[in-house]
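Thread: Newbie trying to understand structure tokens

Hi all, I'm a second-year student working on a class project, and my supervisor (Dr. K.) asked me to get a predicted structure for one chain before our next meeting. I've only ever worked with sequences, so writing a 3D structure as a token string is new to me. If someone could post the tokens and maybe explain what I'm looking at, I'd be very grateful. Here's the chain:
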Amino acid sequence: MAQRHLALYEQMSLAAARHRVQLIIWPETAYPYVLEEPLKEGVPPGLSALQERLGAALLLGLVARRQEGQLTNSALLLENGKAVFQYDKIHLVPFGEYVPLRRVLFFVNKLSQVVGNFSPGRDYSLATLRGHGKFAVLICYEDIFPGLVRKFFRRAGDFMVVLTNDGWFGTTGGPHQHLGFAALRAVENRKPLLRAANTGVSAVFDHTGRLLRSLPLAERGLLLAELRTHPGQSFYSQWGDIFVYLMALASLLMLLKKD
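---
Reply by user tm_fold:
Sure, no problem. This is what the structure looks like when written as tokens:
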């Protein structure tokens, strides 16, 4: 079904490009083939040609292979037919993308064929979209971790993009629950957020966490939005959970004083 899926993404992307957009976003692992060191070796001619036809930057999810042979769950930004930025997912799903304590839990792979063997990324760098500033890319469920997201915005940044695959949840409440976390990350860091999910819910939030537009669960379509970026840093981006730590310290001092 790989070719059918690629043809569908191409068709939808060309439809989006007719609106003269600056950035087109595909979900997590939308590209169905493994790319070998895309920043160094380049991307397949068909993918490169498609991005140039679009006339817009293309951000897509895929699986990449490092020179050492390790697989990464990655996002790739294409401009002018070339790969200009790659983000490798940092917070992998335990027992889904890797086995923690593999030497101890050696029997897990025999119990399930679904467990992957991905390697985590380590770089909290931001991508750059010309004319619209810098943005962080989050993959899968990384947007449920406040501390991880904050690390992208400690110095700079204008907005964030989430590429996810919530197909595992089907039509349950899971995708909606996951969507709610995105609003919190926008509020904490005061950054707009674009969310592309292969089965939904795709959505756009402003920097206050307000849902501007969304595409319903299990409904195919394009989600077009005009994004207003928001530079600067929020209190949380700068200081993190210091308020929580101060309250915990104050509570401890009150208990000690009471004794």
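A couple of things are worth pointing out once you decode it. The mean pLDDT is 91. The chain has three domains: 1-88, 89-123, 128-259. Feel free to ask follow-ups in this thread.
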